[in-house]
Amino acid sequence: MAKAERTEVFEVPIEKFFQAIVDYKSYPQFADGVKSIEVLKQAGDTAEVKFNLNIVKEITYTLKLTSKKNESVDWSLVSGDMMKKNNGGWKLKDLGQGKTEVTYHLEVELKGFFPGLGMIEKTMVNTNLPMNMKAFAKRAASL
């Protein structure tokens, strides 16, 4: 199992950052490794989204995401072909003057054992995490 948490400040208004996070269908346009997204259900502040990623190996999983407008988006694993655990979230804090403090946390565990398992888990949390945050900030700034 791999865990990570990172906090950064971006010069993007909190409303735009939040919008970039909850626009799930747009992820393949800017988020590295995201091949496709399918929003299976969406009602109010809750969505069930199927992700298809290509990070070292192709992985498909479904998350339940719950959002609080301009504050947070949290998720938990519903199902996954290789995932045992995928919990995490975004926390946003308005710093004023168009700046947002963003905290992203992620806990991932893959099923079974196969060569490269540890590398995939570490790649998902350690390498993709900082790149992912910057990709979302860039997307938010363009909104």
Would you give an account of this structure?
With 143 residues, the protein is an alpha+beta fold. Helix 1 crosses helix 3 (117-142). Strand 5 and strand 6 form a beta hairpin. The protein starts with a strand and ends with a helix. It is built from three helices and seven strands, in the order βααββββββα. The radius of gyration is 15 Å and the shape is globular. The mean pLDDT is 90. Helices cover 27% and strands 53% of the residues.
List the keywords.
about 140 residues; alpha+beta; seven-stranded antiparallel β-sheet; about 25% helix; about 55% strand; globular
Helix segment tally: 3
Low-confidence stretches: none
Gyration radius, rounded? 15 Å
Structural class: alpha+beta
Mean pLDDT: 90
Order of helices and strands: EHHEEEEEEH
| Sheet with most strands | 7 strands, antiparallel
Proportion of β residues? over 45%
Oligomeric state: single chain
- Please tell me what the overall shape is: globular
Amount of helix: 25-40%
First and last CA, distance: 35 Å
Task: Please give the order of strands in the largest beta sheet.
Answer: 1-7-6-5-4-3-2
How many strands appear in the DSSP assignment? 7
Question: What is the structure about, briefly put?
Answer:
27% of the residues lie in helices and 53% in strands. The chain is of the alpha+beta class.
Can you lay out the helices and strands and say which pair or pack?
Layout: E1 2-10, H1 14-22, H2 27-30, E2 34-43, E3 46-55, E4 57-68, E5 72-80, E6 83-96, E7 99-110, H3 117-142
Antiparallel strand pairs: 1-7, 2-3, 3-4, 4-5, 5-6, 6-7
Helix pairs in contact: 1-3
